[in-house]
Design the sequence.
């Protein structure tokens, strides 16, 4: 699947000043394809694509399962994570699934620690699944491309603008090296969503007038702090709740909604965003420093406005929907249908209801085997920056332009790291932040 045409913005991509020491490993990813591998093209004469999983949380294990389920000619041969217990737990769980025979991870292919991803990338895996906390994505993606690996990269791809610019540059390098980079923005691989957005982009509802996207859910998981955990370990095991690791939930979760908004606009960036947000229910210190609600208005050069809201609060109504309003009708993106301005049906998708999680990996594997690389770099970086500029606006109380966001030097990496003792300086609550 190719990217829609999109503007690069005025800023020149620059290399991020990454951590000088090793980073954590990935938490989610998977791949697969139903096409047979040409004999000898990969993994000798076995037709097997070797997969390495970097990050062994629930998301990573689920993605690995989807990947192996999608293609019998794949094997999971390596796993990496900061914590040994996570590797062992997910390895055991995968061995209890129907894809158990495709899980072939020897003990010496289980890599633990902050440099675990480097050790995995030094092996002969063909594809890596990058699903560690988003903070680590830019550095690990760069390392994977440098190692000549095809990549599935979970969303979002960064937590700040320097990270986005680094990923943009890395994706250019992937194109030059003929390597695939598939994004975990999974709705781009859902047949019904593809058809619905094709209706929008082909003029089926006329000119786009406005967009409403909502991602209101309940609270998510949390791991209580255990005796002996350093600040670093506590934060890594609860990465959702720390902006430096997740980018806040507007970036980590709401990006799915913002990505569909971007898709409907042909992946052209907005000119500015004005947002609000805060913490109403997640006030306990155990929830780190992220907000529990955001509301952002994005304005495009042609005057179209996108109204985006997200919430993670218990006891409230949940709502995950997207609507694109046009001059001739309305597209219900999740309903896979359009109506005219009087509510009369115009179009409804009647095709296959596919498993998008498997499809993204099927298409990745197919691209590798057919030497037709996929590179989702353009939209996955721009959608990540959409989320970041919304967060920047909410945190500062200022309207943020696309140029503000693209050129921002704000780096969320904590000022103090001690990777030996796994300690980190305390993280303050979000407040007025310098972004220029």
Sequence:
């Amino acid at each position: 699947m190719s990217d829609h045409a999109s503007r690069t913005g005025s800023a020149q991509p620059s290399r991020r000043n990454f951590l000088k020491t090793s980073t954590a490993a990935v938490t989610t990813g998977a791949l697969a394809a139903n096409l047979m591998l040409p004999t000898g093209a990969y993994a000798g004469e076995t037709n097997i694509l070797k997969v390495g999983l970097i990050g062994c949380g629930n998301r990573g294990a689920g993605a690995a399962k989807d990947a192996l389920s999608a293609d019998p000619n794949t094997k999971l041969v390596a796993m990496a994570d900061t914590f040994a217990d996570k590797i062992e737990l997910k390895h055991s769980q995968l061995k209890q699934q129907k894809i158990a025979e495709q899980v072939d991870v020897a003990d010496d292919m289980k890599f633990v620690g902050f440099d675990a991803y480097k050790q995995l990338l030094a092996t002969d895996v063909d594809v890596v699944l990058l699903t560690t906390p988003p903070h680590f994505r830019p550095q690990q993606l760069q390392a994977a491309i440098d190692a000549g690996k095809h990549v599935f990269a979970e969303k979002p791809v960064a937590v700040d603008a320097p990270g986005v610019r680094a990923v943009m540059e890395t994706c250019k390098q992937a194109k030059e090296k003929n390597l695939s980079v598939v994004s975990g923005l999974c709705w781009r691989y859902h047949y019904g969503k593809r058809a619905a957005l094709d209706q929008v982009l082909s003029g089926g509802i006329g000119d786009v007038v406005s967009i409403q996207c909502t991602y209101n859910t309940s609270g998510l998981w949390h791991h209580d702090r255990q005796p002996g955990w350093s600040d670093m370990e506590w934060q890594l095991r609860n990465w959702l709740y720390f902006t430096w690791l997740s980018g806040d939930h507007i970036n980590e979760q709401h990006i799915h909604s913002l990505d569909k908004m971007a898709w409907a606009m042909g992946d052209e960036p907005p000119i500015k965003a004005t947002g609000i947000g805060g913490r109403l229910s997640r006030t306990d210190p155990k929830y780190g420093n992220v907000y529990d609600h955001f509301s952002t208005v994005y304005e495009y050069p042609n005057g179209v406005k996108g109204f985006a809201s997200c919430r993670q609060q218990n006891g409230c109504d949940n709502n995950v929907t997207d609507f694109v309003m046009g001059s001739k009708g309305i597209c219900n993106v999740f309903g896979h249908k359009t109506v005219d301005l009087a509510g009369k049906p115009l179009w409804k998708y009647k095709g296959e209801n596919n498993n998008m999680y498997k499809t993204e990996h099927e298409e990745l594997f197919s691209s590798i085997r057919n030497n037709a690389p996929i590179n989702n770099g353009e939209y996955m970086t721009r959608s990540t920056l959409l989320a970041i500029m919304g967060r920047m606006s909410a945190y500062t109380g200022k309207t943020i332009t696309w140029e503000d966001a693209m050129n921002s030097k704000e780096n969320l990496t904590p000022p103090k790291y001690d990777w030996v003792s796994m300690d980190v300086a305390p993280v303050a609550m979000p407040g007025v932040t310098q972004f220029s």
